[in-house]
Design a protein that fits this description.
disordered N terminus, 2 domains, 36% helix
Length: 374
């Protein structure tokens, strides 16, 4: 498949290349029951998809669009056995944990192209293409097609940086979203207003890494059930504005409700072995100090990154979620002291602080998450 150059200059609004094979399936074709027959149809093996938590990719056989067939064959790999997957624990989180997830409305070529350029330049870690709230009702089909065109224009490696936010299970657009995503080779799917394990399992039929967006009181109440719903679920994210609206509350920078929900989300996610736990957007685009402080508080609470509404928020969030040099140095000292301790010693003192196995685990996870030798 012909991809545009990997540099940022090649991904402006006018550089989204469409290919015939990337056209979306007609909305009338159903994922179950009525078979789908793409032009020149026939089953094909999909290339490996990259999980969010570092586990080995899985593959499956699916019917796919004719324009993708040759590339899919070239990239095909044997199916990985579920038993060979790395256990989903905090220690299995990849070194390159994504901190910045930038929203872009799928139906606006200028904004989508600008966001794609930021992804290509490495300015943001993930491009989160929105099919839900940001897209007006008459533009839904066009938004899906624009996303297909964008995916077709990107090299395979950059496609892994793309996530798509789809509608809630109870939305009239949910089934069409799933149909459109069949066979896509992207990094993740984010499901809006996740409220049950059943909803997660329906979205997980795509066999793409899935993030559940918690945006309602019912979603908060069902956090433990949602977090453990399916192996394809790799993360949780918070949608603060929808949640507060559901509770009849107004957003404030110091919301005690949001802080409490973030803590619940971290506990449910970690209990289920999820390594991707995302703070919700900060809606005051003018308040950079507030954004930095709130993001730093989110990292201290155990969150791993944040959803962003505007490119100007990238640097503040990336900095807030990065460990300081002092933290990295302390973690290295902890590991060095632990590795050189006398036999039979289960605890020791480092920089005047008590250190035992849980502290060593913190140090090792911090260094692994942020790409430092552990």
């Amino acid at each position: 498949m012909g991809g545009a150059p990997g540099g940022g200059a090649g991904h402006r609004a006018g550089a989204l290349v469409a290919v015939a094979g990337a056209r979306l399936r007609p909305l009338g074709a159903r994922r179950s029951g009525q078979p789908v027959h793409p032009v020149g149809g026939g089953p094909g093996r999909l290339p490996a998809r990259q999980p969010l938590d570092g586990s080995p990719p899985r593959t499956t056989r699916r019917v796919h669009r004719s324009g993708l067939r040759a590339e899919l064959r070239r990239q095909a790999v044997p199916r990985a056995s579920p038993a060979s997957d790395v256990e989903r624990t905090p220690s299995a989180v990849p070194n390159t944990a994504a901190r910045t997830w930038l929203f872009a409305p799928a139906h606006e070529p200028r904004k989508l192209g600008k966001a794609a350029a930021l992804l290509a330049d490495g300015r943001c870690d993930r491009l989160l293409v929105d099919w839900e709230d940001a897209v007006p009702e008459p533009e839904k089909a066009a938004a899906r097609q624009a996303t297909a065109d964008l995916i077709a224009s990107l090299p395979a490696l950059q496609r892994r940086g793309i996530a798509v936010r789809i509608h809630a299970e109870r939305s009239a657009h949910f089934e069409a979203d799933l149909e459109s995503l069949e066979g896509w080779l992207i990094g993740a799917v984010m499901m809006a207003k996740a409220e049950s394990a059943r909803a997660v399992r329906r979205a997980a039929t795509l066999e793409l890494p899935l993030i559940a967006l918690i945006e309602t009181a019912l979603g908060v109440q069902s956090l433990a059930e949602i977090a453990a719903a399916d192996p394809w679920l790799r993360g949780l994210a918070l949608g603060p504005l929808d949640l507060l609206a559901d509770l009849g509350l107004e957003w404030t920078p110091d919301s005690a409700v949001l802080a409490a929900v973030q803590h619940q989300m971290v506990i449910a996610g970690r209990a289920a072995g999820l390594g991707c736990l995302l703070q919700g957007p900060y809606p005051d685009l003018q308040d950079q100090p507030g954004l930095r402080a709130d993001s730093a508080a989110g990292r201290r609470a155990g969150l791993t990154g944040r959803l962003l509404l505007h490119p100007e928020q990238i640097d503040s969030v990336a900095g807030a979620f990065a460990p300081t040099p002092a933290e990295l140095a302390q973690a290295r000292r902890v590991l060095e002291a632990w590795q050189s301790r006398q036999p039979g010693h289960g605890a020791l003192r480092v920089d005047g602080r008590f250190v035992d196995a849980p502290v060593v685990r913190w140090a090792r996870d911090l260094l692994q998450r942020h790409g430092s030798p552990a």
